[in-house]
Amino acid sequence: MPSKTVLITGANGEIGHGLINFFAQDGSHKIIALDIHDIDDTLTDKCSFIKGSVLDEALLEHIFEKYSFEYVFHLAGILSTGGEKNPLFAHQVNVTGSLNLLNFTRLAAKKREEKITFLFPSSIAAYGIPTLEQKKKAGKISEEQYLFPITMYGCNKLYIEHMGRYFEAFYGLLEPHRDTYPLIDFRSIRFPGIISAETIPTGGTSDYGPEMVHSAAQGKSYSCFVRQDTTLPFVVMPEAVDALIKLSEAKKSQLTRQVYNITSFSVSASQIAGEVKKYFPQASISYSIDPNRQKIVDSWPGDVDDTKARSDWGWKPRYSFESAFAEYLMPAVIERYRCSSLKKCQNSS
Ligand SMILES: NC(=O)c1ccc[n+]([C@@H]2O[C@H](COP(=O)([O-])OP(=O)(O)OC[C@H]3O[C@@H](n4cnc5c(N)ncnc54)[C@H](O)[C@@H]3O)[C@@H](O)[C@H]2O)c1
């Protein structure tokens, strides 16, 4: 019987899939999953699903009254590309929605007289490097550098990181008896691009990496929206899920900060294309640059310094660039698209 209860918002998204599958297999957590869209058939048996919005305060109040959560994984959000198409809407979901979750978690912790651990996936979009030249010179960026995001999404992520810090340590400093009850335990990872074999991304600006992989596996040609030399750090989905779980389980006394960088490998778009072509030699990958999406990616670091995550809670990438393709991505995408052999995939391109 599960002994702990976890709330996952944005549960039908890419990371939500990975987390639900992890917790369902692990068996130790009852999973309450919230999403504004219906959840995939593959997940329905693995969680209790509630369809609704993080902007619906009455619904959140009901959920927090009904269940007693040990962990909240707040994944719901509008990503960078979607956010720039409708910035004020993104602000509403990413900021007001997150404040709602932080506040209901705080109220539940106060009522239960016990801290609740709140996990927030932030992003390298929280960074903003002014020029490409500086990006090249900067090398690995630490958590404190270049915090001048140029997207609504990045601004929202950075602000919610600060709100997490505030809700954990300073909320309502002048409220009477403020220090007599516990608040939340806020922990966050600034994720780089995430490549998943199981799900296809929508709405992010690092999506060209996974899109190349999925297009090639389906025998579809792909037009990449950034320059060949565009470089970003990446992790693959199992590592992203591992990292969230590992950070959630770390002893608080080990943590020296609330927000951590992680990365596995930093590669250019042309390196990803080259690796894809090793497995799908006939893959057709061309480049048609979207100047605005390019501008966004150029402002994000080419690499991040994840020393603190390594030393504080034992983050360690599971894969190199090559082994991520060989051991995870390629076997899983080939299985996903039911290509019985590489040849079949290649022939269909
Ligand atoms: N995937 C990445 O590369 C990446 C990188 C860095 C950070 N992140 C962050 O991780 C989180 C999850 O990312 P993902 O890749 O799974 O994104 P995703 O877009 O696949 O999933 C987001 C989910 O949120 C849901 N959602 C949107 N608005 C909602 C609302 N008002 N109420 C409830 N649910 C709502 C969507 O239906 C979707 O299922 C996001 O906060 C994202 O910013 C992702």
What does the model show?
With 349 residues, the protein is an alpha/beta fold. Helix content is 44%, strand content 18%. The protein contains 14 helices and 14 strands. Strands 3-2-1-4-5-7-11 form a seven-stranded parallel beta sheet, with helices on both faces. Strand 1, helix 1 and strand 2 form a beta-alpha-beta unit. The termini are far apart. Nicotinamide-adenine-dinucleotide binds next to helix 1, strand 2, helix 5, strand 5 and strand 8.
List keywords for this structure.
alpha/beta; three-stranded mixed β-sheet; binds nicotinamide-adenine-dinucleotide; single chain; Rossmann fold
Question: What's the short story on this structure?
Answer:
The protein is α/β, with parallel strands linked by helices. It has a single domain (77-347), classed as 3-Layer(aba) Sandwich (Rossmann fold), CATH 3.40.50. The protein has 14 helices and 14 strands.
